Batch of 2 targets.
Target 1
Amino acid sequence: MVQNMSNGPRALSGLHDLGRHFTHVLLDIYGVLHSGGPVFPEALRCLKALQQHKKHVTLFSNAPRLVPDIASSLAKIGIDPSLYQTVLSSGIHVKSSLESDDSFPLGRRFYHLGVHARLLDKAGYACVSSLQEADFILLTGPDKAWSYPQDYETFFAQALELTRPVVCANPDPYVMLEGEKALCAGTLGRMYETMGGRVLWYGKPYKAFYEMALDMLGVPKDQVVAVGDSMWTDIEGATSVGLASVLILTTGVHQEHFPQTSSPYVASFLRDFSFQPTYVMDALAW
């Protein structure tokens, strides 16, 4: 177990260490509850304990998918809908934002890059088969497993020439899949931005997504804690809106930095960031 540091975030053995202060939990999914395989056993026990202690759990994810798809995939690995109250994803953020603007400022036709194509179903938008036909690109991720950024250089060069904006539905740069880094939409979106393209970002760490969550919960910020595995998305986003946060160390995107979770390893890692988590924990547990 990670030990407390003299200066820095408090180390937790489990969420029970937080006592009764927090009533609502914004809980990341990938890297916290699972990493592309079975649910982590301690995480499942934690979900059950949170319900037993009457905590309101919102699964708060950069998944570029909608609630039915997310709930179905979680149920398949043993996470029953009774173990959480709500789901809020970057996919929902995209759809609600684009649906709310009846003027269709980006146009109605989009080219989809990724594997989750149903975000804009019944939203007044049409998926087309070529960049030339499209008004914008809906980016949910690479279109095949184990892709590399250079695989998409030609595609984005063409998009840039056509001045097509990109709607990025998952800001994560990568996730850990079976112990290996798997490319996500965030890396591709940043590559397009670097090339000079316009990218509209949805999900964590962007303030609008956290404000959407807080509006939905309708409780004071000091009753909410955000739990996630990424400094770049979970912790930066929580910090930007003044939420307490818990960084999960050993099961998510930063796991390579923690061959041990002793204080020197944690302090050395966190030193590179201008923002800090409120708490750190080896893995999600009650």
Note: The helical segments are 41-52, 67-76, 90-99, 153-161, 185-195, 207-217, 231-240, 263-270.
Target 2
Amino acid sequence: MCVDGHMDFPLCILGPCFFTEEDLATRNMVMATGSRVPQYIQVGASFEIMCKSGYILESEWNFVVQCKKDQTVYPKCIELCVLSDAKMEENNIQLFWATSIRHVFSHLAVLDFVCRSGYTADPNSSPFQVRCLKGKMQYPKCATSVSCRITERDLNVGRLLLTNNQSLPLAIPHGGNLEFRCEQNYTLIQPSVRKCVNGTMDFPLCVFTSGKNCSTAPGIPNGDIVSLNKAAYPAGAFVEYRCQNLYTLDGLNKSFCSDGRWTAAPKCLRPCFFTEELLAKWNMTVATGSRVPRYIKIGASFRIKCNSGYVLESHSNDMIQCKRDQIIYPKCTG
């Protein structure tokens, strides 16, 4: 009512925030004190919570529910990753630190796995470095290792002999070693002891050093001969190769003159190529905020982060890797 030019206006008070047990339960939290959830609290007030078993606070410094003017602000409780012994047994893997007794890991924790004895990495396995993301992770996989079969033909082609004169054919288990020597008048160039890696063994090189001379050494694409290429080379001579910038040498970096012929020259493998548009297609950017590297060498990698609205899948790490035959991208999903 207006009285002689004056009016007392009514007072509007902000209403309190309303809570139920279900509000906290759906967010995987309970009261820190163990008491019942307050049904109402005033604007500006707060109360402490703790995460349910199997969950952890996203930020250890944020453990209060706050009643704000326009909203209720809750902390975040994120699910922990629990190691599955059954899954590790099924995939033939174990943690890198095999003596660890920990089985529960927090969000964003990184775990390193290795194959169990007698197994080797499955070619189609996910990465062996795994990040826990909101209670989920994908286990890598190892398969039964394959032995190397050494035949008489293998030795004859390379002018090789076995140091211990074992009977052929010979089976060498994965991870096992075998020592070689060369036939008479041939010289061993590479180390004599070779290792079997999942069914594959690189044989050493035997060179005939007292035979015919060789003509000019062969060139290689995207690479160069380190020294001046001569018109003729004596038996046993060699040339050394190097690759152009960002290319990767594949094979022995030398070629030898062996009885008038050059041994196999190495190859220079192309680097991986990237653009801003290519990363945008995968919903990611460079983690450091710098520009996307246009080229990186085989074996190199760089860290990424997912674009806004996307998250890294649990089985992915946050590295783009340049491999010999492919580029491995993490997965950012919306």
Note: The mean pLDDT is 88.
